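seq:
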Amino acid sequence: MTHQHFQTVEGVLNWNAPLYRLYEKAKQNGKWNPRDIDFTQDKIDYENMTEDEKITIAPLIASFSAGEEAVTLDILPMVQVMARQGRLEDTMFLTTFMFDQAKHTELFSRWQEEMGLGDLDLSAFHSDSYKRIFYEKLPEAMERLNRDDSPNAVIKAATVYNMVVEGILAETGYYSFREILKKANLLPGILQGIDYLNQDEGRHLQFGIYTIQRLSIEHDPSFNIFNDFIDELWPDALGVIEYLTSLYDLQMAQDWTESKLQLDSEKMKQYAIRQYEIRKKQVNRGSSYQRVSELNESMIRNNSLRSS
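struct:
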């Protein structure tokens, strides 16, 4: 790709662009450093946990570690699409997005090393549903952008990346960590990290919602591309959650299990279903706009992407 002109030479940045405002939020709120999180108490807690309790949290760690690595590796094509299409403010925001994902990957790797799990292969906890999303659907949709930056391709990439991986699975994972560990008053370091991740993912979700809405308004007013693809992915997304809860239920059903950790499996599944419904509702609100300019004006008027 060669450059024909530069926006900041011929003019200035669009300070009111939705993604520029999101970039400002990222600068302000994304300053945390995984290296600064103190895992001293986590190490004490982990050493005092029973082997059964360690097994209870292992599938969650396995899911997040690989998931964060996957979204770090797979985000670059989306950055390149926005750059090729001349969306400077979107590209600027995505540079912070990449930085966030790298920190998330670092967080879990640091925690695993501190707990003595650095050399342990946790991939046995990746179910078939997990593999279909993280090993196949996610990288396929993102890699497609290298050769196809059509609205259809970008909508599908944002759907699997932002709406399913981040908006359903990660959000349900945060909920699960808090439900298990806060009730037990354990592992405050990783819980602090989860809070930082949750804050970052809020910005990532806003990118996905806006991008899908913008492209759908322009090219797919019925929002069929988004709705059909998220519905296609949903069974595997729910399958990831059902597998994790089934492991917990099976473990707790054994008479010999020594664990004080508690998780309401049905509540966790219902939480995931609610996230699926919320993501569809959030994106489909865009169908009420006839033009992207109306969407942008609404965001500015409602201050939904304010920089402070």
